[in-house]
Write a structure and sequence with these properties.
It is a single chain. The chain is mostly helical. It has one domain: Growth Hormone, Chain: A (Up-down Bundle), CATH 1.20.1250.20. The chain is built from 20 helices and no strands. Helix 9 runs antiparallel to helix 10 and helix 16 runs antiparallel to helix 20. It is globular, with a radius of gyration of 20 Å. It starts with a helix and ends in an 8-residue tail after the last helix.
Length: about 375
């Protein structure tokens, strides 16, 4: 595998370090800052909204500027924002710092994923994205496990301080990497499309419908992931550190799950793989709601995390296959815009539902939206993936 791909994969690992830390800290935020659940959910909602507003501009940048410099920018933004968060004693200042940190995610993902799709041959995109997501899971898993350690020792702020320095350092290491260029297959494909208006290539009915499907799926996925540690603490009865430890198992399981997702998308086709893995998420969430025994909770959550990590390769493969390489940065920005829009709405929506019912209702709430997305996916005959 080419060196430039591993540079992108490693950058993804650092970008995802803080992915789950904010939501894992929700029970801690409620206790330390005397918040209700809806207020605490803003640590997920506001940063997602900020990231949402940057998706389209970053998509345009990804098609015009060097991937190397965009990756450097993502590392510097994330690293210095983490330093800022580590020094805060106010919940609202923390929300501001995390919001700045989240800007690094769309900057990385749009440029990084579009470059992976250009460096990889068409039939190997799913496999490449599988490796990409596996390294991301290494990062998010390491982040949550390190949070568990610092919660038990020095305090949660140290997890941000600890990771800020290697992230900033890696940003400057990226500058020594080779230039990243698209492969010749992608160049020839785009030359054959030049007579077609760019807007018609990007804003196709297949892509727009797929974004709707992903939006519905995200409501269920974001709802359950945001309040999973809260569910563990308030319904299962675990400690905050214990809930974070179990939550942190998910990304490590996701390393295997991401590789399997790439394999499934390559062997079955991406649409079928996405349907099966989303259905697996719904089934395992149902199993999780039926048990309070610790070993069964761990087992079912591990299975749920496995299926959740399966879905990213099929999703990104479909986006790559139904859009042209020259506009892939914009195409991925539309996908991340949709994902970010739901990520900014779903936590508050789910928190409102929980306030009217109980924390346990987050499970059936998420299952409903996951199943609806699977059904919708089956009704689009033009959504094909190679």
């Amino acid at each position: 595998m080419e060196k430039p791909l591993w540079i992108i994969y490693t950058t993804h690992m650092f970008i995802e370090v803080f992915l789950l830390i904010q939501v894992a800290l929700i029970p801690v935020m409620i206790r330390e800052f005397q918040l209700n659940l809806l207020e605490a959910s803003l640590v997920a909602t506001v940063p997602s909204l900020v990231a949402l507003l940057t998706n389209i501009p970053f998509g345009i940048l990804a098609d015009r500027f060097s991937t190397k410099h965009l990756l450097l920018g993502s590392m510097l933004i994330e690293g210095f924002s983490a330093l800022f968060v580590s020094q805060t004693n106010s919940f609202w200042i923390m929300v501001l710092g995390v919001s700045l940190m989240r800007i690094s995610s769309p900057l990385y993902h749009i440029s990084g994923l579009s470059q992976i799709s250009k460096l990889s041959r068409s039939e190997q995109i799913s496999r490449s994205i599988g490796f990409h997501n596996a390294l991301g899971n290494v990062g998010s898993g390491a982040g949550v496990i390190s949070l568990t350690f610092f919660l038990s020792t020095l305090g949660w702020r140290w997890v941000y301080l600890f990771w800020s320095f290697p992230i900033i350092t890696w940003g400057f290491i990226i500058l020594t990497s080779l230039n990243l260029k698209a492969n010749e297959v992608e160049k020839r494909q785009d030359q054959g499309r030049r007579r077609t208006p760019k807007s018609s290539l990007v804003f196709s009915s297949a892509l727009l419908f797929f974004l709707v499907v992903i939006g519905v799926r995200q409501v269920g996925s974001i709802g359950s992931s945001t309040f999973m540690t809260t569910y563990f603490v308030e319904t299962v009865g675990l400690s905050e550190a214990g809930a974070s430890l179990i939550f942190g198992l998910g990304p490590f399981v996701g390393i295997v799950g991401s590789l399997c997702g790439g394999y499934l998308a390559e062997r079955l086709n991406a649409k079928r793989a996405l349907s099966l893995t989303t259905l697996g998420c719904a089934i395992t969430l149902s199993m999780l709601s039926l048990t309070s025994e610790l070993h069964f909770v761990i087992l079912t959550y591990v299975l749920y995390a496995f299926f959740t990590s399966n879905i990213w390769s099929p999703i990104n493969t479909i986006v790559a296959h139904i859009t042209p390489a020259a506009q892939r940065g914009l195409s991925y920005s539309l996908y991340f815009f949709t994902e970010g829009l739901i990520a900014s709405i779903a936590p508050a929506l789910t928190a409102g539902v929980i306030e009217l019912t109980n924390v346990w209702f987050v499970i059936p709430f998420s299952i409903i939206f996951l199943i609806i997305s699977v059904v919708m996916l089956q009704f689009h005959s033009h959504l094909r993936s190679r």
